[in-house]
Amino acid sequence: MLSDSLPKNRDIWRIAAPMILSNISVPLLGMVDTGVTGHLDDAAYLGAVAIGSTIFGFLYAGFNFLRMGTTGITAQRFGANDGDGLKVALGQALVVSLAIALALLLLQWPIAGLSMRALGPDAGIATLADEYFFIRIWSAPATLANYALIGWFIGLQNARIPLYIVLAINLTNIVLDLTFVLLLDMKVEGVAAASVIAEFTGLAVGGAFAISCLKRHSGKMLLSHLVTLREYKAFFAVNVHLLVRTMALMFTFAFITAAGARLGGLILAANAVLMNLLHLMSFALDGFAHAAEALVGKAVGARDRDALQRAVTLALRWSLYVSVLFSLFFLIAGRPLVRLLTDLEPVIDVSYIYLPWLVLLPLVAVWSYLYDGVFVGATRAREMRDIMLISSFFVFLPAWYSFSFLGNHGLWLALTLFLASRGIGMHYYYRTRVLRAIRA
After folding, report:
1. Mean pLDDT of the chain
2. Which of 30, 54, 42 is nearest to 187 (CA)?
3. Does pTM surpass 0.85?
4. Is residue 326 pLDDT above 80, yes or no?
5. Do 272 and 259 touch, CB atoms closer than 8 A?
6. What pLDDT was estimated at residue 39?
7. Burial 393-411 (b: 16+ CB within 10 A, else e)
8. In terms of C-beta distances under 8 Å and separation of at least 24 residues, what long-range contacts does 239-242 make, across chains too?
């Protein structure tokens, strides 16, 4: 019989299920943004929103360390029953998020200029994209603060409140999209304004829950830990490595897009279709990674080796079950799914050629996705960084250049080896460093 202190299946699902639901709402919002602008009288509006969304997707993805780092630090302090530390973890994450947001607001003009030059839209689309950018940039304080709040709540093993925050953001955004664009004829500026208001709505929801939660936990918010730079040493020790790791990951996927483009427009389009389906799988598996973050962090904070091993075993087991289901799903329903995403016959035909890679990848990717959660919870950001750098620059790139004669098959092979390298490397570090750091 299991000890009451060890994680159980219900503990995994208590965190994973709400996070899976919140993840599913994200592509729904993108579909609404595309739908409302796609029905306007000029395709330039759709292009402008696509350009703007790409800029902010790239910009904000680079600061996702605010979410991951806050989760790991909070989970460990929760496991150690450190009430002061819990409150300081949230306070420091919010201070850093607002400082970054202020920097983005001050640098908005050069960021916009560099982004437009990099993406190179035509003049008409660029003008509309500028309108979108200079409105949506004002969402930065709320967006980054929401990263901190969501990370903090996951660290407390509370996934319901992140779900409420994400649903508040996405549902508000959808309603305002429809209202501003279709009823008030605001076009691109309406889509951008909807995003800004939605992010602050999510911040209001998260802030209200955070105030209530802080009152229930013992300890004090030590002001000296928020205003003294040296007190942020632990915070930056984790998050600087996570930032580098995220940049390497973004480089790899940007390289895949660029390499696909060089192989031709049909290859680029087919890869985009298949990558969307791969991202669909990640929404589900990320839920189990979030569960691992919270439970592993708590176990590490409590110095409980048995709880750590149990948390990893259960999260990995459920991740493997789901990855097998996705492989079967893509094997059986892959072709109808491709047709659901595009009705262009040449793109469909090319997508079918590379569909077998999509059947294989869930079984390869599951290890790296789950171990990301384990390492976030254990605050082993340096190891995450090292493995990502090795996988990106010493596995992925050499594999692509070695197998480029295979064309797009070589690109998918390089991606497969990249994901496998991450999983193998993190499993090795888990056995040799994370577990050994907690003596039995």
Report:
1. 88
2. 42
3. yes
4. yes
5. no
6. 63
7. eebbbebbeebeeeebebb
8. 239/65, 239/66, 239/69, 239/96, 239/381, 240/381, 241/381, 241/382, 241/384, 241/385, 242/64, 242/65, 242/68, 242/69, 242/381, 242/384, 242/385
